[in-house]
Amino acid sequence: MARIQLHRIAHARAGDKGNRANISLICHDPADYPMIRDQVTEGFVAGLFAARKPSRVVRYELPQLAAMNFVVDDVLEGGVNSSLGLDGHGKALSFLLLSAEIEEDVL
Q: Least crowded by CB within 10 Å, which of 22, 33, 65, 98?
């Protein structure tokens, strides 16, 4: 097994609404979807965002698109208009997910 950053095998789209981030993770190659699906769980994403104290993470699987969508509640410091953070937008949080490492089978 080797470790690989998600950005090497997937890309992300993200947005925000209030204090909720919405992050889609899309595989470059559909063959990687099972590996990503098995490792990038709700708990995995909650752990990545632990410092922001998410109250809930929900994963929606989109296997026909080789993608998944995560809805992460209460991670934007009250929302874009309420936060004193310079970059509290959900869009920026997709890069945190893409920098995460998972295990890759190496044959």
A: 65
